[in-house]
Specification:
It is built from 40 helices and 9 strands. It is mainly α and 712 residues long.
Length: 712
């Protein structure tokens, strides 16, 4: 680095809690692109015949089809049970598995998928048969990763029992484990399988093989077993020579730290006996995104909280783990680079028992703070004479009033609070602000006490209940006069979002007078509200108040607003009519139709109005919708994850939806209205298959009668 002319450092300070990524960025996929890999939906006449017979549990027919050579190459666009062989395994039909296997209807990939599926379901006889037929696992990284999506003991055992000729015990891993899911030994340790772990070690598995897990690079088998509390795995690994101090790359967390963090006292004892350093400290920062150009080096510095085994143990709150470390001679006053100690952590977690154990072991604590935690008024009164000197001598910011507020749940002492408030001129303002925030969140009664009797309302008006909070209280109480007076008060100010929220609160609560007042004050009924399911009119429909709906209609609420679409979620997800259908409110739905509502639209969530009506479970709502001539066979493609904006092309109909709900009355109603029971969804399942799979015998009878021939 010293030879470079320029060193540019991109500094990015990140709190430790933010360093556990969970795929926060989700692509806004176009609806059309989601067709790839998904079925389009069809009829039972176009469904794969062998797989349909298996789904209907018509196993005699299925066996006959195999013997006739019918069904070879069948495949549906499903992530699981996509072939007749996998489906037969899922149904637990060994005779079918053997018939398909003996017919040779599988290759390496389909056979491997089938073997993994049999292991997932603990179908031992099927596993034995498939292995005897030459099925193996680990032929490719994709299939290796597939197996570890369900890392049961039976699935992992396959890699020892039936490995592909190209697979070795240390394959699919590297020094820092950037390959997911990493080598076998690490996975066996992570999932807690000591027998598989021992056998893998015998076969030459590397003890220092690592994986990337939950943002930690270079997690060794011992580190993983320690973090998960798998004591027997830890014993085996230590006996085999695993290094007790092998830390992860960036954070430098050791196995002992992770065991302490998880509150695994028995694992901590094993690691300590193996020589683990009870006073080890983790990193304070690490570098990422390193890039070296011709004359420039750029990187990101990530600042993190330094930890030690005892700091982790105190934060975990596990008494046995703290005691194990104390018994091992840990330095109870060991502080991190910021001055944070286990005692401070125990106090922050409101753990009087941990604090007492630490004090007995020699932990230091200033008498002033000790008096606060004990609720000792006399001792605190004595110590407060030196409050200013105490605060100025602290390396780490100490907040006496904040801690008094938090420990009030234990001490129940208002006297302690009063003594500190009397000295508030000497307290840091941040302490008072933190105390107010803590009280507001944890102790509403004490929050009011601080504001009123403590005299902080005037000094810290920003911490008093906001105008919105006070108005919301009056909405909840139905106090229209009080609401109007407060709203009109000179000091009442609401932000744009708060104005929308208070209007919605009033509408949903059915407060006609308050809502009328807000509209008169210029409240916008059709304003854009990103990632919001219902419009204001939709909220009115959900309120159950037909008078509220009338008020909004008369005031200009849009009855057919533009709805959100993938990548543009500025509009409601559904219309007010759909909202009324979801609530099963026929009078409101009829009112909206009278004002021009369109019952045939499809909402952003993928449901038709009929779909929402079915979800309500109200028979009268379903019958009313059908009387409007809505299509009972309309397909529904559902929005997955709400705001993620991903459409899953399910191709379901209302009849399928009613069947999955087990709603026999709705199924009969839909069939009478012309619902076609022969339609199939994206994986070639019709309503009958769904009824059979879910064990709804009454529905199965209804649908079989409606179909007649269940295969045409």
């Amino acid at each position: 680095m010293k030879n470079f002319k320029i060193i540019a450092i991109a500094a990015a300070l990140a709190a430790a809690s933010s360093l556990f990524p969970s795929c926060a960025t989700v692509s806004k996929l176009l609806e059309g692109s989601m067709d790839k890999g998904y079925g389009e939906g069809g009829t039972i006449a176009t469904a794969a015949p062998l797989m349909r017979a298996i789904k209907l549990r018509d196993y005699v027919r299925a066996l006959s089809l195999v013997n006739q050579g019918i069904g070879k190459g069948e495949n549906v666009a499903s992530p699981k049970d996509a072939t007749p062989l996998e489906l037969a395994i899922a149904h637990g039909r060994l005779e079918l598995v053997k018939a398909i296997g003996d017919a040779g209807w599988f290759d390496q990939e389909s056979g491997e998928r089938a073997l993994i599926r049999a292991a997932e379901l603990e179908e031992r006889a099927m596993m034995d048969y498939l292995i005897a037929k030459g099925c193996t696992v680990g032929s490719s990284f994709a299939l290796y990763a597939l197996a570890f999506k369900t890392p049961t003991h039976a699935v992992l055992s396959l890699f020892l029992r039936a490995p592909h000729p190209t697979y070795t015990i240390n394959k699919f891993g590297n020094g820092y484990g950037t390959a997911d899911p990493g080598p076998f030994l690490a996975q066996a340790a992570l999932n807690g399988y000591p027998d598989l772990l021992a056998e893998a070690i015998k076969r030459g598995a590397k003890l220092d093989s690592t994986i990337l897990v939950s943002g930690y690079t270079g997690a060794s088998p011992l580190w993983l077993a320690s973090a998960m509390g798998h004591a027997e795995c830890v014993r085996i690994l230590l006996a085999a020579g695993a290094k007790a101090e092998l830390a992860v790359k960036e954070y430098k967390y050791t196995p002992l730290m992770m065991a302490a963090r998880g509150g695994h006292a028995d694992v901590c004892k094993q690691l300590i006996a193996a020589g683990a350093n009870v006073n080890a400290k983790s990193a304070t920062a690490y570098v990422s995104d390193w890039f070296q150009g011709s004359s420039t080096i750029t990187y990101t510095r990530n600042d993190i909280k330094q930890r030690s085994p005892l700091l982790f143990a105190a934060a975990s709150g596990d008494f046995a783990t703290v005691k194990a470390l104390i018994d091992a001679g840990v330095d109870v006053n060991l502080a991190n680079d910021e001055g944070w100690t286990a005692m401070l952590s125990a106090r922050a977690e409101l753990r009087a028992d941990l604090a007492e154990a630490l004090l007995k072991a020699g932990a230091l604590e200033h008498p002033l703070m000790n008096a606060i935690y004990r609720g000792d008024e006399a001792a605190l009164r004595k110590e407060l004479t030196g409050l200013k000197a105490f605060l100025s001598a602290q390396k780490l910011a100490i907040y006496p009033l904040t801690m008094a507020v938090r420990w009030h749940a234990i001490t129940k002492s208002h006297a302690i609070i009063d003594l500190l408030l009397a000295k508030r001129a000497e307290l840091p303002k941040e302490d008072i602000q933190r105390a107010l925030r803590a009280a507001k969140q944890e102790n509403p009664e004490l929050y009011r006490y601080l504001l009123d009797k403590g005299g902080l309302r005037e000094e810290y008006p920003q911490y008093a209940p906001s105008a919105y909070e006070l108005l919301a209280e009056r909405v909840a109480a139905g106090d229209a006069d009080g609401f109007k007076a407060l709203y009109a008060a000179p000091g009442t100010k609401l932000g744009l979002f708060e104005k929308k929220q208070i209007l919605e609160d009033s509408i949903l609560a059915g407060r006609i007078d308050i809502t009328r007042f807000l509209i008169a004050q210029g409240a916008e009924l059709n304003a854009l509200w990103p990632v919001h399911v219902d419009s204001m009119l939709g909220d009115a429909a959900l309120s159950g108040s037909i008078d509220m709906v009338k008020l909004l209609l008369d005031s200009g609420a849009a009855i057919e607003p533009k709805l959100s679409s993938v990548g543009l979620e500025l509009y409601p997800y559904r219309t007010a009519f759909m909202a009324a259908c979801s609530a099963g409110d026929v009078p409101i739905a009829r009112l909206l139709i009278g004002h021009g509502a369109n019952p045939h639209r499809v909402g952003y969530e993928g449901y038709t109005a009929l779909g929402y009506a079915l979800a309500s479970g109200k028979k009268e709502m379903l019958e009313y919708l059908l009387s409007l001539g809505v299509d009972p066979n309309a397909r529904m493609d559902l929005l997955m994850g709400k705001a993620s904006g991903v459409i899953e092309r399910k191709r379901e109909t209302a009849l399928m939806q009613a069947t999955q709900k087990g709603d026999a009355a709705a199924v009969r109603t839909l069939l009478a209205a012309g619902a076609d029971p022969r339609l199939t969804d994206w994986v070639e399942d019709d309503a009958l298959v769904m009824a059979v799979r879910l064990g709804f015998k009454e529905l199965e009878g209804i649908l079989r009668a409606a179909l007649g021939d269940v295969y045409k």
